[in-house]
Write a structure and sequence with these properties.
Blueprint lengths: L11 E3 L2 E4 L2 E10 L16 H18 L4 E5 L3 H9 L3 E3 L6 H15 L3 E5 L18 E5 L6 E7 L12 H12 L3 E3 L12 H12 L1
Parallel strand pairs: 3-4, 3-6, 4-5, 7-9
Antiparallel strand pairs: 1-2, 2-3, 6-8, 7-8
Amino acid sequence: MAGPVDDMVLGYAIGPRAFVGSTIVRVDLVVPVKSFSFAKGRLASVLTDDERRELARTCAERVVAAAGEWRVHVVCDDPDVVTWATSHGCGVVTPTSPGLDAAVDAGRDAARIDGAEHIVVAHSDLPLARSFSHLVTDAVVTLVADRHRDGTNVIALPASSTFRTAYGPGSFAVHCRRLDDLGIAYRCVDDHELSLDLDTADDLAELKMRSAT
């Protein structure tokens, strides 16, 4: 019976493709990105508008760079983000419906149509992202929670997976329950770097503390 999986063989990036077990597959990254100009509103008490804009852009660049040679699909409908994504060699996907889940669905569809066999979905506000290759596992959905184990910062899954996301408060637990209900094999990875996203002043303080050590 499917459910949480332990001691799975990890995937390792080799250019735009990756070993999954003994098979080489193509892995794409999907990154939903909001407008840089209006990003990180909850940090308005500690950062200026320009600082928040620069922080959002810098984090997004870090996430895209962490993909290495994987193809990246940026899901956005903001002209500034479209220009930024194109300048970084990313494919641009325009969501047809509002909301993060709809954006992720659009990005996954685009990646699958483009030939991806495994897809990694990552938030754009992960300031310590370095790699996602260790999350790729054959026929298994991989979840990375935020540092509070509340939200879901990264999901890796086969391109053919029927699993659909349910982002929002408590999404990590919701995703685990949904995968259990569907009988889909999954694993949860505790990743010190990918678990840090920047939503609040407390998150920003955590980043500054880690950067100082």
